[in-house]
Design brief:
about 100 residues; 3 helices; 5 strands; alpha+beta; two-stranded antiparallel sheet
């Protein structure tokens, strides 16, 4: 199954363990739930071909799912590899972070 279909299954909330494993292998990511901040819902750290998604542990199921999909789409769209400055699109404490 291709990644786009698997991402749609994550969005629907109906994905099997094997499909989830396939998506993680295809996009090379792992997920960690941590207590970051009530303001930071999630972020991704990329090193070479490996991606680590951090999700705020106190989020509701729906917010966690939306944050996870948001971060997965960054990886799927190769935003980090394109040299894009994502900080200008993301918000922290309701203020844009400038890229330098």
């Amino acid at each position: 199954m291709n990644c786009k279909k698997l991402i749609s299954k994550v969005e629907s909330g109906i994905i099997t363990y094997n499909e989830w494993t396939e998506l993680r292998k295809e996009l090379n990511f792992n997920v960690v739930r941590i207590n970051v901040s009530p303001v930071v819902m999630g972020f991704t750290i990329c090193k070479k071909n490996s991606n680590l998604i951090f999700i705020e542990s106190d989020l509701s199921y729906e917010a966690e799912k939306e944050t996870l999909i948001h971060e997965i789409l960054h990886i799927y769209n190769k935003d980090f590899q394109k040299g894009k400055c994502l900080k200008s699109k993301e918000y922290l404490y309701s203020n844009p972070i400038s890229c330098k």
